[in-house]
Design brief:
Oligomer: single chain
Shape: globular
Strand order of the largest sheet: 7-6-14-15-16-13-17
Strand content: 15-25%
Radius of gyration: 23 Å
Number of helices: 16
Largest sheet: 7 strands, mixed
Length: 398
C-alpha cells in the first residue's frame, strides 16, 4: 500500500496493486465489535516515539495520534507475582545475582567479548545460555513477553543485529485515532485519487517472465508488467508458483527466513473490570509463564479505552499458538472459557464478566527472523530482498 502510495503521483494508472485479501493492510488489521463501530488492532497497535518515519506519515495523512504512556505491569513466573523484572529476579531466580538485571544481561549479550565469536554458536538460545548462563536464560525468557525470540531456532548473529536496531525503539507509545488502519485508509484514498488501480481479493498464484515482462496470474486477471514489486512475506510467498517465484524460493536467503507464528485474541467487555483489580496499581499489561495466555494488554488511549476492549492474548510461543488455533476450532466458547480461567489466575478475586465478543487471529508469520545455521546476517538478507534475482533491473536503474 505504501509503495503504491509513493509511486502513484508519478506513475498514476500505470501502477496496479493486487491484494490477496478483501481488505488492504496485511498485519495492519483492525476489527470492531459492531458493524461500522470503532476499531481495535489484531496486529499492529502503536507507534513508538523513535519511529519518525511513521510519525511523519501520520502528519502527512492528517492522522491524530493519542500519546498514552504505559502504566503498571504485572507478571507471574514460577508461582510468584510482581511488577518489575528486578523484583522477579530476586523472588524466582535465586541463582541469578541481584546485580544481573535484565538490562545488564542484555548488555552482556550485545557488548560482551563473546559476541566476536557469535558465528560459532548454532542458535541464539545457545549463545544466551553460554554468555549469560542457563538460569539467566530462563529469567530473560520468562520476563519477556515475546517468547518466540527465545524458543525458535534463530541465528544468533542475525538476532543480535535485530536487537541492536530494536533496543532503542522506545519508549512512550502513540495510538492512531481510528486504529492503525487509519494509515491504510489514508494512503488508499490518496492512492486512488492519483489514479492507481487497486484490485482486492485477487491473490497472485503465478509469477513468471516472458518477452522481458513479468506475467502475473490472479483469479480474474492475466497481468503483463514491465516492473514488479513483490510485497509478500516469506510464509505467503511459498504458495506462489511460476518461474520467477520459484527462482526466489530456491535461493538460500529465502529458505533461511523463518516466520514467527502469532496468536492474538481480542475481547470486548460490558464493563472495565480491570479498574481497581489490583489495589494501588493501574495494571494495563500482564503476562505469565503459567499458561498460554502469555500476555494481556489493556488500552489506555481514549479511542480504544472507551471501547472496553482488551488484547486478552498475545502469544508467539509455537506450541501455545497451535493450542489457541486448535481451541478456536472447537468454538469461541472454548476460547473464552480458557481465557477466563487464566485471567482468574492473573487477577485473583476479581469478578470478570463474560465478554460481549471474542475475535481470534492467527498470523502464520507475524514477523520473520533468520533461522539458525544461516550464513547470512539480517543486513545481508535485507540487501538481497531489494533485488533478489541477479541481473533483474531494479526500479531505479531504468
Amino acid at each position: 500500500m505504501h509503495t503504491a502510495f509513493r509511486l502513484g503521483p508519478t506513475l498514476h494508472a500505470n501502477v496496479c496493486l493486487f491484494e490477496k485479501e478483501d481488505q488492504l493492510g496485511g498485519r495492519v488489521h483492525d476489527v470492531s465489535r459492531t458493524p461500522n463501530g470503532p476499531l481495535y488492532g489484531t496486529g499492529a497497535l502503536r507507534v513508538m516515539e523513535t519511529q519518525t518515519v511513521v510519525f511523519n506519515l501520520a502528519a502527512e495523512l492528517g492522522i491524530t495520534l493519542e500519546v498514552a504512556p504505559y502504566r503498571d505491569d504485572r507478571f507471574s513466573a514460577r508461582g510468584f507475582f510482581t511488577y518489575d523484572s528486578d523484583t522477579m529476579n530476586n523472588l524466582a531466580y535465586p541463582q541469578v545475582p541481584d546485580s544481573e538485571s535484565e538490562t545488564v544481561l542484555y548488555d552482556k549479550l550485545r557488548f560482551g567479548p563473546e559476541r566476536a565469536n557469535v558465528d560459532n554458536y548454532p542458535d541464539f538460545r545457545s549463545y544466551v545460555r553460554r554468555v549469560a548462563g542457563v538460569e539467566q536464560y530462563h529469567f530473560l525468557t520468562d520476563v519477556f513477553r515475546f517468547r518466540g525470540d527465545f524458543t525458535y531456532p534463530l541465528s544468533a548473529k542475525a538476532y543480535l543485529q535485530f536487537l541492536d536496531e530494536d533496543w532503542d525503539v522506545c519508549c512512550t507509545p502513540s495510538y492512531p485515532v481510528g486504529g492503525m488502519s487509519a494509515f491504510i485508509r489514508g494512503m488508499e484514498q490518496r492512492t486512488l485519487a492519483s489514479g492507481v488501480r487497486i484490485f482486492r481479493s485477487q491473490p497472485v498464484s503465478d509469477i513468471s517472465k516472458a518477452g522481458g515482462h513479468y506475467i502475473l496470474t490472479t483469479p480474474g486477471y492475466l497481468v503483463n508488467a514491465p516492473r514488479l514489486v513483490i510485497a509478500v512475506d516469506s510464509e505467503g510467498f511459498k504458495f506462489i508458483q511460476g518461474g520467477i517465484a520459484q527462482q526466489i524460493q530456491a535461493m538460500p536467503q529465502f529458505q533461511d527466513l523463518t516466520g514467527i507464528k502469532v496468536a492474538t485474541i481480542t475481547q470486548w467487555w460490558p464493563q472495565a473490570w480491570w479498574i481497581g483489580a489490583v489495589p494501588g496499581k493501574d495494571v494495563r499489561r500482564a503476562w505469565t509463564t503459567e499458561s498460554c495466555l502469555n500476555a494481556i494488554e489493556i488500552p489506555i488511549n481514549p479511542y480504544a479505552a472507551d471501547q472496553k476492549v482488551t488484547r486478552s492474548v498475545y502469544d508467539d510461543d509455537l506450541q501455545c499458538v497451535n493450542f489457541w488455533e486448535q481451541t478456536a476450532q472447537r468454538g469461541i466458547p472454548a476460547v473464552e472459557a480458557e481465557i477466563k480461567r487464566n485471567l482468574d489466575y492473573l487477577f485473583p478475586g476479581v469478578s470478570i464478566p463474560n465478554p460481549l465478543k471474542t475475535h481470534v487471529q492467527i498470523w502464520p508469520g507475524g514477523w520473520h527472523f533468520v533461522r539458525a545455521g544461516s550464513p547470512f546476517s539480517t543486513m545481508q538478507i535485507a540487501s538481497w530482498a531489494i533485488q533478489p534475482i541477479p541481473g533483474e533491473a531494479d526500479f531505479t536503474s531504468g
